[in-house]
Structure formats: structure tokens, C-alpha cells
Design a protein that fits this description.
The protein is an alpha+beta fold. It contains 4 helices and 16 strands.
């Protein structure tokens, strides 16, 4: 029995507008839309979920999406498409790199990657990337949390993935987490699973309870060993 990755949640000032931006950019359908939540389909059953928050974005996100391209021309087309939908170029100190760093209409950074063999045929999202002080250790925790195996491990980065779907990647940074993340993962036990048992299992791996103002909810909010918030949903 274990939890699995369920979705990627994005704090939003305007969930409807931001969800429509990402749906158009990724060419993926909106699977649910209300004032309180907009869901955009990704691969392998996961979704991007946009929810309303009152807090403004203040620092560079510690989680971001990398978009895949199949050629230099395709990369340029994706960049122009993103800009036409409301994205803008972003400077996060990347200097001279082959990928392009952009920010969506609410300032959330994302990268349009140059063609890479490991991402060919993967779909529009190559990876969800997580800043990490210790990529190898954090990948180990998230392998337990998602059930995804560690497929690449290096002192500067580590990756999780099964045979298909987007990667979950951890990249070394020097800066520790300072504010609540605007993007987070939701994980979920199987339909015959037990929420308290799964929470206890994750706590044994280094997770701790987190208070993000959730009040009385049916899910449990935890933080991973580097403080990144995530939710353990009810079994499904």
C-alpha cells in the first residue's frame, strides 16, 4: 500500500484565467471549471489544478514546469505561443542556456526546453522540477510518496519516472525555502487504502504536519523534509 502522485496544484489569483492559459499552451482540455477550481488534464491521469488564494507571488517558485520541444523550430513556436497567450520572458539568473525561461500571466516561472532525447514523445510537459538543497535525499523521500522509482541520481540532480509520463526532477539550489510554495503536489492512497496509515508512513520518512490555514478539511497537509507543502488526499 502506498500513495501515488495525483495532481499538481497551483495557487492562483484568477484560477479561471490561469487555467485557460495553461490549457491553451499545453493543448490539453479543461476537465473541470468553477470559481473555486479549474482542472487541466496532463498525462498519466494527473492534472494541473488551479485554486484561488489571496497571497501575491513574492519569490521565485521552488516548483516549476519544463515544457518539451521536438526541434529548434518547435521550441521557438512554443515560446511565441506562450507570449501570445500572455507569458513574458523571465530572468532568474540563468545566463546563457539553451532553454528559454518564461513566466505565466501570474508570474509563475516555467521553461521551454531545447530538444532532448529523453523527453521525445513524452507529451507537452517534460518534467515538474523541484528546487532542492539535497536532490538525492529529497528524491528518495518523493519516491516513497509517489511510488515512482529513482531513475537518475547525481549530487546536483535526481529524477523520478516510470516508463511513461512526465518526469519529477530535483535540482540543487543554494537558497532554502522561505515562503509557502505556490505549486505543490497532491498524493493519494488507493481506493482500499487508509489515510491515517499513509500519513504515518510518510511521517516516518521525514514528513511533518503543516499549517497553511486549511482549517477543517478531509485531507492532510504535510511538508517534506525540505519544507515543501503537499496534501495527502482521501483514498480513491
Amino acid at each position: 500500500m502506498a500513495t501515488r502522485l495525483y495532481d499538481v496544484v497551483v495557487d492562483s489569483a484568477d484560477p479561471v484565467a490561469l487555467g485557460r492559459f495553461w490549457s491553451a499552451l499545453l493543448d490539453r482540455p479543461i476537465t473541470g471549471e468553477s470559481a473555486d477550481e479549474v482542472d487541466v488534464a496532463l498525462d498519466e491521469g494527473a492534472e494541473l489544478v488551479f485554486v484561488p488564494v489571496g497571497d501575491e507571488k513574492r519569490v521565485k517558485n521552488r516548483l516549476h514546469l519544463d515544457l518539451a520541444s521536438t526541434s529548434a523550430e518547435h521550441q521557438a513556436q512554443l515560446v511565441e505561443k506562450a507570449k501570445s497567450l500572455g507569458a513574458r520572458e523571465a530572468d532568474i539568473g540563468q545566463r546563457s542556456v539553451p532553454w528559454v525561461v518564461l513566466a505565466d500571466p501570474e508570474g509563475n516561472e516555467f521553461c521551454v526546453l531545447e530538444p532532448r532525447a529523453e523527453y521525445l514523445g513524452i507529451g507537452p510537459v517534460a518534467a515538474v522540477v523541484v528546487d532542492a538543497l539535497d536532490p538525492v535525499a529529497l528524491a528518495g523521500f518523493w519516491a516513497h510518496a509517489t511510488g515512482l522509482p529513482v531513475t537518475r541520481s547525481h549530487p546536483e540532480y535526481a529524477s523520478l519516472r516510470r516508463d511513461s509520463g512526465f518526469w519529477v526532477e530535483f535540482v540543487r539550489v543554494a537558497e532554502p525555502k522561505s515562503v509557502k510554495n505556490r505549486l505543490h503536489f497532491d498524493v493519494v492512497p488507493p481506493a482500499d487504502g487508509d489515510l491515517p496509515l499513509e500519513v504515518a508512513r510518510l511521517e516516518a520518512q521525514g514528513a511533518v504536519r503543516a499549517d497553511v490555514g486549511q482549517r477543517d478539511v478531509e485531507w492532510v497537509v504535510l511538508a517534506d523534509p525540505e519544507g515543501n507543502e503537499f496534501c495527502v488526499l482521501t483514498p480513491r
